[in-house]
Amino acid sequence: MPVSSTLAPFGTSIFAEMTGLAMRHQAINLSQGFPDFDGPDFLKVAAVAAIRAGHNQYARSFGVPALNAAIARDFTTTGGYTITDPDTHITITSGCTEALPATILGLINPGDEVILIEPFYDSYPACIALARATPRVLTLRPDKSGTFALDPAELEAAFNTRTRAILLNTPHNPTGKVFSQAELSHISSLCIKHNVLCIVDEVYEKLVYSPALPHLHIASFPGMAERTITLSSLGKSFSVTGWKIGWAIAPPHLTAGVRAAHQFLTFATSTPMQHAAAHALASPDGAAYLKSLIAQYAASRDQLAAALTHAGFIPHRTDGTYFIMADASPVISRLAARPGLGHIQDDITLCRWMTEHLKVAAIPPTAFYINKAHGRHFVRFAFCKKPETLAAAAERLNMLCS
Ligand SMILES: Cc1ncc(COP(=O)(O)O)c(C=O)c1O
């Protein structure tokens, strides 16, 4: 059967492609962002207990009460606004991956414009296309200090009478950027001025490393609660990406749109995993786990950044997420000058060659750009891996120096 004309242009997700290539070549997989270590025991025990306790039938469509309540508490204590009624503000979805189309299909009309910031998570443009809306693309570019930033004038010019929403991601995959108070204030003022919705993907909200640049919920900025849909999930924070427990937080009038789509996308998501997720967010075990994970990831980030620098890449600073975006221009030029390697000219040819010959897989970020030229000299590496995995990758990357 031919793929529909809406989805055919999007091909196969780059994550599936690179992980498949990594497996075929037995490469160390620093491409797809999933930990190569298991989630915490206390969480597995909670999931098994929920199954044994008989929580095995369809959940309430918008989530089991304990999880809605735990998310509301967590959102409030981490600087969000106070949610007095979790049942009218929070919808549990099958990962943030479902929260995205539920929000976009439920609230965006055909012909609306959605401001899309590149590089983006690859499902964003596909969701916008499914809603028959039009992306209005802005590019994050490194400034003089190497920090990815939007041009304020370009940002202002992107808003117009057809703009229905801006789709924001902070902490940002793939750049590792955490949007600052000043940047979020500017975006907020434009959303309010033009009466635009803000859909914010915060799946890496817990994974931030710089006290000077904490994660901020844009929903809590003045005038933003009534126009913001905050999306997040459990997988990255608790190293259980396969559980696919996500959520959308929004006031009731916007939640109505999210649920209008959610009921027909999945209706409800895994009941026992929702019970375990509530435990993760509400228990001291969860808080202790997060503290140690953040310390571990800060060390992993430094370990990988040092290895990349040694191999000739120029890693950009990661303040959040578990990715490093590295400028690969020096490596591409060096390799392309070698006999037989003249075909290595961009991120895609470099990542394929590294996977097949160095046995280290990474993501070519042009998949995250509509304007491909902006991404072709970068490579994205994931550091959500054991120290010994990163050490083995460093050894192989060293071969780039010889
Ligand atoms: C920015 C971003 N949004 C959403 C997702 C998907 O989240 P989930 O695994 O909860 O579906 C990811 C996963 O990599 C991501 O990086």
What is the H/E order?
Answer: HEHHHEHEHEEEHEHEEEHHHEEHHEEH
Output the radius of gyration: 21 Å
Strand content: 5-15%
**CATH fold description of the largest domain:** Aspartate Aminotransferase, domain 2
Ligand inventory: pyridoxal-5'-phosphate
**In the CATH hierarchy, what is the superfamily of the largest domain?**
Type I PLP-dependent aspartate aminotransferase-like (Major domain)
Give the helix/strand class.
Answer: alpha/beta
- N- and C-termini, Cα separation: 48 Å
- Count of spatially separate domains: 2
What topology, given as strand order, has the largest sheet? 2-10-9-8-7-3-4
The CATH class of the largest domain: Alpha Beta
Overall geometry comes to: globular
Count up the helices.
Answer: 14
Topology, number of strands = 14
| CATH architecture annotation of the largest domain | 3-Layer(aba) Sandwich
Segments where pLDDT lies below 50 for 5+ residues?
none
Give the overall average pLDDT.
96
Percent helix range: 40-55%
Biggest beta-sheet profile: 7 strands, mixed
